Amino acid sequence: MSNLARGGFAAMFAALALLVGTPRRAGADPNNANCKPNRATCTGNHQCCSGACTAGLCTAPASTTTTTSPSTTSTTVTTSTTTTTSTTTTTLRFVDNGDGTVTDNETGLIWEKKDNTCPGIYCVNDAYTWSSSGTAPDGTAFATFLVTLNGGATGVGNCVSSDGSSQTGGFDNHCDWRLPTIAELRTIVDGSVAGCGPPNFSSPCIDPIFGPTGTASVYLSSTTSASDSGRAWFVAFGNAFAVSTITKGNPNYVRAVRGGS
Predict the structure, then answer these.
(1) 63 or 254: whose pLDDT is higher?
(2) Contact indicator for 194, 203 with CB cutoff of 8 Å
(3) Cys staple from 118: which of 58, 123, 163, 193, with CB 3.0 to 4.6 Å?
(4) Using CA of residue 35, residue 41, residue 46, residue 49, what is the dihedral sign?
(5) Residues with Cβ < 8 Å from 119, sequence gap 6 or more?
(6) How many CA atoms lie within 13 A of 200 on its CB side?
(7) DSSP per residue over 152-179, as a string?
(8) In percent, how much of the chain has pLDDT > 90?
(9) Gap between the Cα atoms of 46 and 30, Å rounded
């Protein structure tokens, strides 16, 4: 090759070197004039201006968040505990007062307790009439039974001296014994008593605390029938506690009460 030819090739290679530039050294600082911007294709972090090549594209470097956890101090507090034992007292509805009377704590009524001392004012088998005139409360239930209980001879609930200054008697030291209303009489019916009602009717439908209870007749109330003034309401404790009216002149059982309204 002539010297002229060699000189031409040399000049050509020099020109190409100036166009292409000097190759960047692998691993050089990416922040130079030849680095690639974000979203440009890349094969390594060193090719990107951001210094991060992710999935073949230059990307912004991931930000790093530093979390500081506060220190926690655990404190155990010991509390003195006092154990209190509570006692629940159940009040019985019916209470035998031991003086021939029974108190109903639900209604506040005090009832006469019957016995088997016959003859006697508390005899379970004694029967009395509501009226002797047909409608007025002048039968033996009022004129004999209640008068005797109230210790006087001048009427129901009247057992004080003539001037009203002193009490002269009365069952359980009270002078206000009376026949119960039909509503009051029904409050002592107890259909849960064993043997009460059908099929055997072997026990009266009333708590045994009231003493013996007649089953061959009915118990009179002080309530007159609204439709017939000659009839009074009654409760039959021995007949599945039937409630109805009966002629006031018929002799029947009675049980006195006091208190209430």
Answers:
(1) 254
(2) yes
(3) 123
(4) positive
(5) 126
(6) 6
(7) -SSSTT--B-TTSSSB---GGG-S--BP
(8) 44
(9) 5
Map tokens 């009654």 to a residue. 234
CA distance 170 to 150: 4
238: Cα separation from own chain's centroid:
36
Q: Where are the alpha helices (DSSP H) in the chain?
A: 3-20, 140, 147-149, 182-186
Higher model confidence: residue 147 or residue 79? 147
- 253: tokens are 């059982």
Rounded distance between C-alpha atoms, residue 128 and residue 122, angstroms: 12
CB atoms within 10 A of CB 202: 12
Q: HSE, CB side, 13 Å, CA atoms: give it for residue 34.
A: 12
What is the DSSP-derived secondary structure letter of residue 49? T
| Residue 31 DSSP symbol | S
Give tens-digit pLDDT for 105-147: 999 999 999 999 998 899 999 999 999 999 999 999 999 999 8
For residue 244, give the nearest of 231, 258, 261 by alpha carbon: 231
Distance separating alpha carbons of residues 4 and 161, to the nearest angstrom: 170
Dihedral sign of CA atoms 171, 177, 179, 181 in order: negative
The answer to whether 209 touches 255, Cβ cutoff 8 Å, is no
53-62, 159-168, 169-178, 210-219 — which one is most confidently predicted on average? Answer: 210-219
